[in-house]
């Protein structure tokens, strides 16, 4: 079974590009299931019901998020209503939404958990300990996938080894820069520190490059506008043995 995982989709420009290329790419690669981080899929920033629906209509099965999930108030009720969009499980339990989703494909169930890192992510609980608890809730899922939305590479690597053999895949999001460390860990878990982003190639994390350069040069606050131009898709394809839930291979996507 082939699962496609897309990095952070940035603004309406990134969302529109995903819609243009995703259906044909899925057919070409024989993709059976698709997960994407959509926390910044709305125009400007954050995620809205309309931007989430746009991604679902484009062929994405489950949307994960991160520290920007609550930036737009209109998403709050949507997070409570929908079972195919998740927010970090280690936020307050009474916050809108839930930290995991289960997709029943008939022959197999896929469980997806979203976690926020402990550094600059507004997390209120330890992601390692919370993940242990949530894994028990999706124990009937043969395939278990973790989106660890975190800042530091060390924390992401540690999470990968912590979950090796317990889940199918641990992938990192948030930095918008694809790393080149994809691997199958010793006990059969696919891992990558960051899957990257879907957005404008010549940008700084999807934002107009001149704005960010001037911000660093002048040290003054700036309003972030989404970049415009040629877009790229970053992600991974994980081939999974459905009978065992183990990853067979992991391949970086960058086009």
N- to C-terminal separation? 22 Å
Number of strands: 13
Q: Report strand %.
A: 25-35%
**Structural class by secondary-structure content:** alpha/beta
Q: Output mean pLDDT.
A: 96
The 3D shape can be described as globular
User: What is the percent of helical residues?
Assistant: 25-40%
Please tell me how large the radius of gyration is: 17 Å
Sequence of secondary-structure elements? EEHEHEHEEHEHEEEEHEE
- Unreliable parts: none
- Identify the quaternary structure here: single chain
Main sheet summary: 7 strands, mixed
DSSP helical segment count? 6
Summarize the structure.
This protein is 26% helix and 27% strand. It is built from 6 helices and 13 strands. The strands form 2 sheets. Strands 1, 2, 3, 4, 11, 12 and 13 form a 7-stranded mixed β-sheet that branches. A 6-stranded mixed β-sheet has the order 5-6-7-8-10-9, with helices on one face.
Describe this structure as you would to a colleague.
- It is a single chain.
- The chain is α/β, with parallel strands linked by helices.
- It contains 6 helices and 13 strands.
- The strands form 2 sheets. Strands 1, 2, 3, 4, 11, 12 and 13 form a 7-stranded mixed β-sheet that branches.
- The chain is globular and about 55 Å long.
Offer a few descriptive terms.
255 residues, alpha/beta, 6-stranded mixed sheet, 6 helices, 13 strands, 27% strand
List the topology elements.
Blueprint: E1 2-6, E2 8-9, H1 11-29, E3 33-37, H2 49-57, E4 62-64, H3 76-81, E5 100-104, E6 109-116, H4 127-137, E7 143-149, H5 153-163, E8 169-173, E9 183-184, E10 190-192, E11 197-200, H6 209-218, E12 231-241, E13 246-254
Parallel strand pairs: 1-3, 2-11, 3-4, 6-7, 7-8, 8-10
Antiparallel strand pairs: 1-12, 5-6, 9-10, 11-12, 12-13
Helix pairs in contact: 1-2
